[in-house]
């Protein structure tokens, strides 16, 4: 078999560990022609760009029979150590140093095999405007870690997850919902006019099952399905991990038995705000997810189990994880490697920092990091779990227009988002989600929160301070069409 990518012989200490944190390979057979590629799927579009770059270099058409990809960062110290420079071109020896493009630091790396058995490695930037075909390829990602814990002697040991209980809730089609502060008559009217059939409420363990039953009855009596986002005490989790996981599982089981239509197990477990510092990993979270899934399905197999959506972030940089947090893509890669797909009906995702429309794949003034764009965020979750659909348990756009006070400094990135864009982008996201075939539920963050301070929840709300709801009409048009 001819190999077109020349692999470097030198071994940089620790590089495999860094690469394992940065990337996770998803192997996909190439089963469709270029003309069949959906324009709404950024990875498929990037694959076409990679294929065209290879064909231009080789001077011939190629027929892809197998390919895999991972999200990559060519701006790191490890990348410099590997290639002697930064950027998308640092794996191309034919390009002179001063002609390389160090400013293009993020994108996808594709490993492609054609029908003749020839293998290629190509890179495509997240905005799809730049590509490179490598003749010096980085080592493939190392396998992700298994689920591990520390025993009473301080030794790291593997943990066997339980066999998944049978029972899977239906995730066919697409549904819209909203996260409410209170299910008031006004909120009910707005949600109905928007075409919503789901309502979300967050429920701490400390509130008790009785509060959950109250939420369930209020939603279902008004014709809505109810998604309960279960959260707990990170300090109690740190003090007795297994014991507190058992409490979470029991709590979720009681909610399922009471008729909850869906349960999201925890919230943003990749941050130390929600999970014990130093214990943050997708593998550790999967232990909680597995216990809760089995308890829920034993109590009510029709309750939809949604994995806890990680917070979109790249703050950990090339390390992928630091004691305080894990980047969301790395966290989900760890979940996937630990077997989380066996313990969910739907992948929980959040998208709440967009300042460009959902159909846009580049042009954010902050840069091209994938958490800024709807399409790349959808792909971050969907590509990892064997075809499981995504449930956006928070999707919102922040606008300070009409709030009566300046937008908080920490959220200045949203300072130019108008109320008209807020409404139009929510509707566009609902339409794109429905048409993608990848999304089961989209929960708008939010319907009627009013807080406007260091945490500007009111700026995300559909219901504005003057009583208007521009997003209601826009969403209603999408859902009725």
Give me the side-by-side strand order of the main sheet. Answer: 14-13-12-11-10-19-18-17
**What's the story with the biggest beta sheet?**
8 strands, parallel
Q: Which second-level CATH architecture of the largest domain applies?
A: Alpha-Beta Barrel
| Fraction of residues in helix | 25-40%
Radius of gyration: 23 Å
**Number of separate strands:** 19
Strand content: 15-25%
CATH C-level class of the largest domain is Alpha Beta
Structural class: alpha/beta
Looking at how many chains there are and whether they match, the oligomeric state comes to single chain
CATH fold description of the largest domain: TIM Barrel
- Supply the number of structural domains: 2
CATH superfamily of the largest domain: Glycosidases
Low-confidence stretches: 1-38, 138-146
Shape field: globular
Arithmetic mean of pLDDT? 86
User: Number of helix segments?
Assistant: 12
For the termini, the CA-CA separation is 52 Å
């Amino acid at each position: 078999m001819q190999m077109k990518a020349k692999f470097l012989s030198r071994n940089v200490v620790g590089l495999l560990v860094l690469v394992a944190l940065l990337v996770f390979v998803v192997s996909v057979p190439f089963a469709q022609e270029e003309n069949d590629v959906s324009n709404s799927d950024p990875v498929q579009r990037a694959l076409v760009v990679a294929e065209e770059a290879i064909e231009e270099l080789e001077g011939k058409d190629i027929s892809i029979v197998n390919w895999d990809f991972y999200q990559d960062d060519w701006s790191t110290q490890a990348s410099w150590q590997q290639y002697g420079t930064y950027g998308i071109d640092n794996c191309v020896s034919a390009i002179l140093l001063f002609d390389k493009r160090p400013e293009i630091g993020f994108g996808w790396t594709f490993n492609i095999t054609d029908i003749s058995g020839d293998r290629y490695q190509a890179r495509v930037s997240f905005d799809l405007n730049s590509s490179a075909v490598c003749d010096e390829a980085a080592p493939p990602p190392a396998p992700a870690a298994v689920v591990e814990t520390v025993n009473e002697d301080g030794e790291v040991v593997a943990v066997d997850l339980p066999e998944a209980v049978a029972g899977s809730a239906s995730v066919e089609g697409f549904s819209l919902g909203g996260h409410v502060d209170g299910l008031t008559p006004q909120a009910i009217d707005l949600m109905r006019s928007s075409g919503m059939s789901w309502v979300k409420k967050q429920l701490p363990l400390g509130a008790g099952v009785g509060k959950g039953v109250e939420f369930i009855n209020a939603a279902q009596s008004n014709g809505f399905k109810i998604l309960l986002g279960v959260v707990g005490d990170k300090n109690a989790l740190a003090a007795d991990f297994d014991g507190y996981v058992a409490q979470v599982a029991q709590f979720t089981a009681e909610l399922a038995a009471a008729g909850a239509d869906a349960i999201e197990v925890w919230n943003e477990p990749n941050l130390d705000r929600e999970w014990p510092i130093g214990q943050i990993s997708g593998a550790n979270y999967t232990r909680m997810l597995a216990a809760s899934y089995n308890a829920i399905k034993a109590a009510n197999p029709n309750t939809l189990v949604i994995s806890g959506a990680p917070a979109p972030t790249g703050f950990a940089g090339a390390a992928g994880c630091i004691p305080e947090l894990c980047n969301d893509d790395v966290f989900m890669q760890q979940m996937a490697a630990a077997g989380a797909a066996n313990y969910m009906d739907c992948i929980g995702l959040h998208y709440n920092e967009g300042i460009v429309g959902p159909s846009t794949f580049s042009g954010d003034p902050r840069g091209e990091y994938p958490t800024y764009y709807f399409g790349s965020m959808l792909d971050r979750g969907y590509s990892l779990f064997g075809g499981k659909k995504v449930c956006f348990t928070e999707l919102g756009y922040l606008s300070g227009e009409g709030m009566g006070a300046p937008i908080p400094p920490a959220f200045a990135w949203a300072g130019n988002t108008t109320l008209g864009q807020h409404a139009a982008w929510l509707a566009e996201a609902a339409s794109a989600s429905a048409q993608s075939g990848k999304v089961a539920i989209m929960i708008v963050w939010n319907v009627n929160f009013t807080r406007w301070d260091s945490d500007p929840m009111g700026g995300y709300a559909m219901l504005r301070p003057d009583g208007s709801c521009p997003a209601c009409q826009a969403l209603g048009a999408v859902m009725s069409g």
